[in-house]
Amino acid sequence: MNSSESISRRILLKIIAGVSVASCFWPSSVLAKWKIFPQECLEGMLTGLFAHKKSAIFVGQKYLEKVPNEANVSLLVDLIGLPQSNWSSKLTRWDKNDIKGLIRQQQMLDFECNRIEKIEGWVLSKTEVRLCALASLFKL
Amino acid sequence: MLNDARAVEKNRTIKTDVCIIGAGAAGITIAREFIGQKFQVCLLESGGEAYDEKTQSLYSGVNSGHPYYQLDECRLRWLGGTTNHWAGDCRPLDEIDFETRSWVSYSGWPFSKAHLNPFYERAQSICQLGPFSYEARDWENPEENFTIPPFGGDQVLTTIYQESPPTRFGLVYRDELQCAENLATYLYANVLELETDQTGRTVTRLSVATLDGNKWFMEAKRFILAVGGIENPRLLLNSNKVFPPGLGNHHDLVGRFFMEHPEYWSGIVLPLAPYSLKMLSHKSRKNNVPVWGALTLKEGVLRKEKLMNFSTTLRYVDTVPLGIKSFSQMKNDVLEGNVPDQLLEHLRNVIVDIDDIAHATYRKIFKSDAPLFPKTLKFFNRTEQSPNPDSRVLLGEERDDLGKRRVRLHWKLNPMDLYSVKKGHEIMAKEFGRAGLGRIKVELDDHESIWPPTLRGEYHHMGTTRMHNDPKQGVVDGNCRVHGISNLFVAGSSVFPTSGYANPTLTIVALALRLADYIKTSIIQ
Q1: Which of A4, A45, B83, B338 could cysteine-pair with B333, CB 3.0–4.6 Å?
Q2: Rounded to whole angstroms, how far apart are CA atoms B263 and B503?
Q3: Nearest-CA distance from B297 to chain A in Å?
Q4: Does the model's pTM come out above 0.90?
């Protein structure tokens, strides 16, 4: 690749990145209109969430072996159950700690409301295993 | 005074007011309560003041039920009895253990825990324990991080065990026994049989023999049988000259309802806040009393879910990677429940990644980014066994060196004993998660009748001459008197109608004090 091609490539990547970032700032109505699923944002969130990507993928694959019909990004996002408005509003103001706080609340509610999943004897929250399942689908 | 039964004149009859058979925790407790009273007491002990192989071999028997220890290993036969290898763990039974529970057949004591509390209180000092409190809040020690785990909620409860030094009754109380003026202790005295009158309603005398061939007799107005949960029924069944099924056995209950405390490894804990769990995984000492905590289900949960009682402690065990172990080491690991868990490590990474608080804790504990504990934290359970009439002590065909039939133990468990722990663990797992304290792996097989390979007993032999005011449901009445026999009483854990999960020694001593008070009162009256 020559320097002019690499520059073009860098510009292109920036544009793509800009689009990705920009899409995070778009309100949900716009996203819906454009049918843009915020996959880039989701992937970014998961990357930020899981420092140990291999472990997340391992757990996620274990879960999907048990529940193969959930091997779908859209379905998992719905099932994880973070309200859509929260997704879009949080995505417009991406904040890792806010997401973690939401997830932590969701985990504790899962145990309280018996939304659990047993994987090889481990009693886990549905939220955490579905997040791992998402990570395995994105192959972080 | 301590006497040697081998030196008693052959065929002599010794007369006394009260004769106690067996110098273990129960027998010695009762004997001490009678010191200084206006009646004469004899205490008979099969062994001497130390272990001897020939006496110990009288305990040999056969196991025909669930795998169990050798019967001459799990009991000791010399002054002090099985307290000579007692670990010292003490806790009273819970209130619910005394109740008639609709989901537990044959449950119910003739009295409540409140009735027994004054005797528990007196038993504390006999077992060299601290004050009579088993509330976790009374034993917190914040300086050591020994605090109640912050579960909150209404599902689980942290309870406390106190630890005796342990009290070797034969050593600690030997001098008192020797110096007591109204008490004569006979060592090497083996009771062959309790002889009765022709009606079988009154015990008239004991035939006593020594291993060197001596034989004599003991007459008393009252007899107290205190030789343990396996030997009490054995002696009653072997006393069958007048009534062939055995003394006190008119309703075929002697020996039945044998209960142990099944103990086994049952799961792994992935702790997110290890220091918060220290009360469940470590010992502490407060006011010079060693204590440790255990997790149990609250009584409301036991009632709602219809479960047996049980308690769980957390213990750190070594974890060695699979690759470097030999086959025989791995086999032992499986038996001990120590199989490495691949998913554990990945889960730890995932949960710590998600949870900032846990992440901070791990980073604090481990400076590097390789935070794995070298040991695994595991659940270790002690469970209540539900009363089962087919779990029993019988007489075998072999005879011992004194010519008496040896014992055959047929230990049998009920499916609900295992179900209770499985269900209880699921509840605990959810509580760990809800409280943000960790994740649990339940390592109990889903199949209801497959017992964990690590399951064993705790040398606790209970229930074989159970207490009930109805002679068709119990061998002894509420005062521990054998139904149908006016002057024979039973002491020890063989009278327990239910077992709870608590170690039996403190309750044995409490019941012994209660019986001693009853007999003192009846003699005075």
Answers
A1: B338
A2: 12
A3: 16
A4: no
